[in-house]
Amino acid sequence: MTAPASIGLAEIGKARNAIADTILTTPVSVSPELSARAGVPVHLKLEHQQITGSFKLRGATNAVLNLSDEQRGCGVVGVSTGNHGRGLAYAARRNGVRCIICMSELVPQNKIDGIKAQGAEVRIVGRSQDDAQVEADRLMSEEGMTMVPPFDHPDIIAGQGTIGLELLEQVPDLETVIIQVSGGGLIAGIAAALKARKPDIRVVGVSMERGAAMYECLKAGKPVLVEELPTLADSLGGGIGLDNRYTFAMVRGLVDDMVLVSELEIAQAIRHAYWQECQIVEGSGAAGIAALLSGKVRPSGPTAILLSGGNIDMELHHRIISGEDVDVTGGGE
Ligand SMILES: *Cc1c(COP(=O)(O)O)cnc(C)c1O
Predict the structure, then answer these.
(1) Distance of CA 225 to the CA centre of its chain
(2) Which of 26, 111, 235, 307 to mutate to test the pocket of ligand 1 (most atoms within 8 A of CB)?
(3) Which range among 42-46, 110-114, 132-136, 218-222 shows the weakest confidence by mean pLDDT?
């Protein structure tokens, strides 16, 4: 297996030193229930307990710390309504860098408030993500701001990869890891770290059935457009970019298997996380548990599942854990 890109242990180790002061080393806990089901020890990496509620803080912090003095002076811009926006806003404020997050008019108020609460300026433009991107491009070209992308960037991938180094120290006999996949920065970084240290580790990616962009691109053998659909795993939505430079090649080279989980399986996993593990996890963060509970991943040897995020609407969470049949898909395909 070839390591396709230039992000490896050197970059990830550097990122780890750089971000050590700002991020939490998140705990790992054994799940007795999942271990019994799987017949192997199953460890949960509680990254939804990271500051800002997701691992995105790692990559964003690394990206902000790698800015030149001139770039720091001009500030950063992001286009994200979710966890990347929160992480970037926090990382920028923490380092005294101006941050503008662009989003469309259609974004719900609670998401806007979540990002404002981390100290970013929010700029609301147009009625789609594309309109927000146009404003971000303008801020780059006219005001010299630096765009920090959510996944396809070496600093981001190296930042997310720090989870892999932590995990191997916490579970030295690790043999299988299950990681959620959207744009692929998370799994690319973690797989690069793990396989550099322990080449035989099996890395399994999980996405939702509805709009599994990376999965479709791997099948097509190149980045392709994939329609975004409403799903409980909303943080896993969106494409990988037709001009993808890093994550597609890394995922293709480093990830051993990809599985897809249904809306029902995701809901079940959110419920399991709450009732069996005492963890509040968003749909995207629970997809790894869904992959195991559904039997779609059969782990061999000590296994880790990453709980990647915890930012879920509390009303939605309450309905799911109460056993309600929640359908966010609008009854569509
Ligand atoms: C962004 C995100 C992912 C996927 O990360 P990628 O690097 O885009 O693959 C998984 N889980 C949560 C909670 C996220 O916010």
Answers:
(1) 20
(2) 235
(3) 110-114
Count of positions (residues) in the chain: 333
For the segment 152-196, what is each residue's pLDDT rounded down to a tens digit? Answer: 999 999 999 999 999 999 999 999 999 999 999 999 999 999 999
**pLDDT per residue over 287-320, tens digit each?**
999 999 999 999 999 999 999 999 999 999 999 9
Task: Let me know: does 328 contact 230? Beta carbons within 8 Å.
Answer: yes
Q: Which residues pair with 272 in a beta bridge?
A: none
CB crowding 199-216: b at 16 or more within 10 Å, else e? eebbbbbbbbbbbbbbbb
Q: Which atom of ligand 1 is nearest to the CA of 181?
A: 9
For residue range 223-282, what is the model confidence (pLDDT) as tens digits?
A: 999 998 999 999 999 999 999 999 999 999 999 999 999 999 999 999 999 999 999 999
Measured distance CA(61)–CA(58) in Å, rounded = 5
Is 308 near ligand 1, meaning CB less than 6 Å away? yes
Q: 262: how many CB neighbours lie within 10 A of its CB? A: 16
Amino acid at 215: Y
Q: What's the gap in Å between 142 CA and the centre of ligand 1?
A: 30
Maximum C-alpha span of the chain? 58
Please indicate whether residue 87, judged by its CB atom, sits closer than 6 Å to ligand 1.
no
